Every structure is written in C-alpha cells, then in structure tokens.
Amino acid sequence: MLHNQSILNNPFLNKGTAFTKEERQKLGLTGTLPSQVQTLEQQTTQAYAQFQSKTTPLEKRIFLMTLFNENRTLFYRLMDDHLVEFMPIVYDPVVADSIEQYNELFLNPQNAAFVSVDAPDDIEDTLRNAAGGRDIRLVVVTDSEGILGMGDWGVNGVDIAIGKLMVYTAAAGIDPSQVLPVSIDAGTNNQKLLNDPLYLGNRHERVTGDRYYETIDKFVQAEQKLFPESLLHWEDFGRSNAQVILDKYKDKIATFNDDIQGTGMVVLAGILGALNISKENIKDQKILTFGAGTAGMGIANQIMDELMQEGLTEEEAKQHFYAVDKQGLLFEDTADLTPAQKPFTRKRSEFTNADELTNLEAIVKAVHPTIMIGTSTQPGAFTETIVKEMADHTERPIIFPLSNPTKLAEATAENLIKWTDGRALVATGIPAEDVDYNGVSYQIGQGNNALMYPGLGFGLIASTAKLLNKETLSAACHALGGIVDTSKPGAAVLPPVSKITEFSQKLAEVVAQSIVDQGLNKEPIQDVKKAVADMKWTPEYQDINND
Ligand SMILES: NC(=O)c1ccc[n+]([C@@H]2O[C@H](COP(=O)([O-])OP(=O)(O)OC[C@H]3O[C@@H](n4cnc5c(N)ncnc54)[C@H](O)[C@@H]3O)[C@@H](O)[C@H]2O)c1
Ligand SMILES: O=C(O)C[C@H](O)C(=O)O
Ligand SMILES: [Mn+2]
Question: Where is the Malic enzyme N-terminal domain (predicted)?
Fold first, then answer.
C-alpha cells in the first residue's frame, strides 16, 4: 500500500493537479491538492508558459529538471510537444553547463545510482536501491573521465547519463520508469573539483588499473544479475578505458559504447547522406579523422566496415584513411599510438615530406581528403586556409566538425558554407541554424549520436537482443536513407531532429529485424514491428493500482 504523500513524491506516479476526485479519494489525497482537477493538456500549457518565462538556457534547464523530478509524464508530454526546442536544453549543449555547476545546482539525485570505487561491496545494493523495485531495461553509465570534450568532471557527469536517457524516451519511447542512469565515481583528476568544498563526489584522484577494472566488473556483474533483460550503454569514458571495456563485454552481453559506436553510426549515415547528394561513391573517398580518440577511431572503424561490405579487402579499405592526432598524421612508427589507432597508420615512405606532416594544414595539403571529420576538442581547428585547400581539390567536400559542446567545435557551419562557396556538405555536433548563402538556404544536419542511439537501443531492447554485432550496426547506418529529399538545393546530409521520433522508430525496427534475422533474440518474436510498437511508451496518465 502506497502512502498518500509518497505518491505525490513519486515522479513515476505523480499526476499533481490531474488526480481526479475519485483518485484523490482512493489514494488518500483528498485535500492535499487545490480543488480544481486539471487535464494533462492544461498542465502542459501552464508548464510551458512557466518555461517561457525563464530567460537563460540554464534557467530553462533548471525549470525542466524540476518538472522532471516532480512528474515524468508531464515532463515528457511537454518535451513531445516542444522536442526541437527542448533537445539542446535538456541535452547537449546546455547539459554541459549543468555538469560544470552540478554541486552548486544540486537539488535531487534524479533516480540515478551512484557507484563508488571506494565501496565495491555496496555496488549491488546501490543499483537495487536506485532502481527501487522498477523493472530496469536500460542503463546508461558514465565514469565521466571524458565528458563531451570537456575532460574529467567526476560525479558531476551523472547529468550526461540522465540527459542521454531523456533523449531515449523523447525520441524512441522507452518507458522512463524502466531506465537507470549510473555514475561510476572512480575519483577525479579535475583539480578544480578536488579543491571545491561543495564537490559532491569522492575527493581523491582517479583510481586506475586493477582496482578500477574490478569496480567496472563488479558493476557489470551486479547490473546483469539485477536487470537481466537490460541493455547497457557506456558514455563518456576516457580514451584509455572506453574501447578496453567495450571489447571486454561486447560479445557477452547486450551492450554498446555510444561515443565509439553511436558516433560511428551517425557519421557513416551522414556520409551516406552526403554521397547521396553529391552522387559520389564511398569507395572513391579519402577520409581524414582529426582527433583520433574514442570517437575518431569509432568513426574510422564504422566506415571501414562499410568499405569492406562494398567489396574491398581490409588492406584496400585501410588505404582510404588518414588518422591525425596531437602528433600529426599517425605513422607506423609514431610514438604513443593507442591500440585503436594502430590499424589506421600510414607508411612514411608514402610521402616525400612525411616528417613535416605534424599539423593539419600540411596534412590536408599532402593528402587532399574528400571527407574531414573533427573529434579533436580543438576549437576552430578547421581554419579558412585548411578548408579552402581541401575544397580546391574536391567538388563537394564533406566536413563534419563534431567536437562538443559549442565552444569546442572545429568550425561553424556558416563558415564552412561560406568558405567553400556553398559546396561543403556539413554536419555539426550541436544543432545549427540554417545557413542562407547566395539565395540558398542550407540545412545543417546534426551529426550527433543522439540521432542514432535511441533507435538502436530501443530496437535492441524490444527484440530482447543478446548482443550487438557489426551486421546490426551496419543495417542501422543505412536505415536513415530516403528521409531527406536530396534533390532540394541546400538539403541536409542527415534527417532533422524534428523527425527524430519517426526515424527512431524506423531505426528500432531495422535493428530488431536484424537481431531476429540472426537469431540473436533471447525470447521468441513473431512480429518485429509489433514488438517495437508494443514496447513504446507514451506520456499519458495511467490508473494507479494501490493494492
Ligand atoms: N557529435 C557527436 O556525436 C560526438 C560523439 C562523440 C564525441 N564527440 C566529440 O568529439 C570530441 C572527442 O571526444 P572523444 O570521446 O573521442 O575524446 P577522446 O579524448 O577519446 O579523443 C580526443 C582526441 O583528440 C586528440 N587531440 C587533442 N588535441 C589535439 C590536437 N591539437 N590535434 C589533434 N588531435 C588532438 C586527443 O589526443 C584524443 O585522441 C569531444 O569534443 C566530443 O564531444 C562528438
Ligand atoms: O553528448 C553528445 O552530445 C555527443 C557525444 O556523445 C559527445 O560525447 O560529445
Ligand atoms: Mn558522449
């Protein structure tokens, strides 16, 4: 039996002023609310007016988070109605501000689980307590070592897990009571946080090595034990751990790393969209990834798989890539290569001036890439000189400056369009306005994994997937084709966020079909479309059974 006040304080059950007279009677809420009974529509109108009265993006976010804390149904109903407006507020880029000010703004743990490296024996209880008896199907976990491109944010990074989950529900329709955001607090190397008396996380340096990996393993074991039907999504781990963790679990459980695989997917989908516009072939492209870290190498691997599916051998496919990191173009003998970088290195003998290829300008001059992707965290790195040099050697340069948040982008969409006289095919990490240039309105696709992971994850959950493999990833990358009208001048390389619910559903169906076709579903599924449709949650008030 639920205590009356606990219903009002439970965001998964609370309806606020929408509790009917009968419900108030039944649940012991009579007299605990003003007498008027409102509809969800009336509540939505009132809440949106309040939202609009807030002047800064952060104030808007704080208001929405308060609503989220109170009443998930109302929050998601409002988000459904104003999806394009709310995405940048609850998610990237404004989530970055809330992460930087997490301690100052803290009001509510938002049903997250806080796993501590200092209390390994509490991990199972931690997850159980945070789930509070809910049937968890989706876990987004971060250790916050690489939050967007902003580095280490300790426990503050929990907001990215919460934000990613909000997009899951808004875009794909995962039931918000079936999700669990998790912070793995392994300490932090962010000196500012360690010195901050208000910092809420473990006040010591990051734990690394065996103790770190034991914590991760304990977490995975407990997560699988408590929520055997769940999908595990990894977010914003550091460069040295992200791939290692993924490789350890990817063949055993339903899991993926969003920065590696989600980003790889959205970039390949964007490239396929761009090539649809330029009518070029992927086998004729030279791909430069600037910032050969977690995302950069995830992107390279996804494109590599596509080239191999197009019939190239591994050796042939590798010849299409130029990976660039701090050291410059990565060669076989470059110092400090990561395991993910090694397969994508070049030979010095390919270039007459190999030793000079230590900066992007020299590399672009030597390579003449047709595709340039930025995941470097280096703002403004795609300069006018570099972009013009690239555009001098290819008709439709494909340029995706993807570093987030806004202040870290390698270039703006507007500059890329201007510098190339409208020829560049552009996608940016954060939302970008249309660019009006020479009478054409250029629509800019959002090259953000948020376009892909909700549909991917939802499809995996709905199909009760045992694991995610290359076949399913590849099928998903091709699922967005045909949504954008590429014959229109200024067409975007990716479908707009305004259609995210539509294409997330399509993506989920393609993913679920691929799982079932490969026999990777745990439970029998007769009708894939129905399985996806049945799983979809919509923000409407349900009857509460209080027995
Ligand atoms: N749009 C998206 O969907 C999306 C997805 C994932 C990551 N990102 C963004 O990409 C960026 C990188 O994320 P990550 O997870 O790969 O981080 P990461 O730390 O794993 O990788 C960043 C890489 O950039 C390299 N780098 C740093 N300075 C450089 C320089 N001067 N020149 C060349 N390379 C340099 C680093 O050495 C590292 O290898 C972040 O800003 C992140 O927000 C965007
Ligand atoms: O969070 C985002 O906006 C995309 C991506 O996962 C990132 O780390 O930048
Ligand atoms: Mn990320």
Answer: 68-250
Which residue from 236, 239, 408 has its CB within 8 A of the most atoms of ligand 2, so it is best to mutate? 236
User: What is the spatial distance between Cα 46 and Cα 432, in angstroms, rounded to a whole number?
Assistant: 29
CB of 261 closer than 6 angstroms to any ligand 1 atom: no
CA-closest residue to ligand 2 atom 6: 259
Q: Which ligand is nearest to the CA of 402?
A: 1
Q: Is the ipTM of this complex over 0.95?
A: yes
Residue 284: burial class (beta carbons within 10 Å; 0-12, 13-18, 19+): exposed
Q: Which residues pair with 233 in a beta bridge?
A: 140, 256
Q: Which two tokens stand for residue 85?
A: 């407006």
At 448-495, the pLDDT tens digits run 999 999 999 999 999 999 999 999 999 999 999 889 999 999 999 999
**Is-above-0.90 flag for pTM?**
yes
Q: Report CA(379)–ligand 1 centroid distance (Å).
A: 11
Say if residues 299 and 264 touch (Cβ distance below 8 Å): yes
H or E segment and range at residue 528:
helix 528-535
Pick from 287, 435, 445: which is nearest to 373 by CA? Answer: 287
Distance in Å, CA 127 to ligand 1 centroid = 30
Neighbours of 35 (CB within 10 A): 9
Helix (H) or strand (E) holding 49, with range, is: helix 40-53
Nearest by Cα to 293 from 218, 359, 378, 355: 378
190's torsion region: left (phi>0), alpha (psi -120 to 50) or beta? Answer: beta
The reply to whether ligand 2 has any atom less than 6 angstroms from the CB of 258 is yes
- Ligand 2 pocket, 92 CB below 6 A? yes
- Six-digit token string for 460: 């995996």
Q: CB–CB of 177/12 below 8 Å?
A: yes
Ligand 2 geometric centre to CA of 404 (Å): 6
Please identify every residue annotated as catalytic: 91, 164
> What does the pLDDT look like over 69-92, one tens digit per residue?
999 999 999 999 999 999 999 999
Cα(154)–Cα(167) distance, rounded to whole angstroms? 22
- Sign of torsion over alpha carbons 217, 473, 272, 414: negative
Nearest alpha-carbon partner for 35 in 46, 43, 24: 24
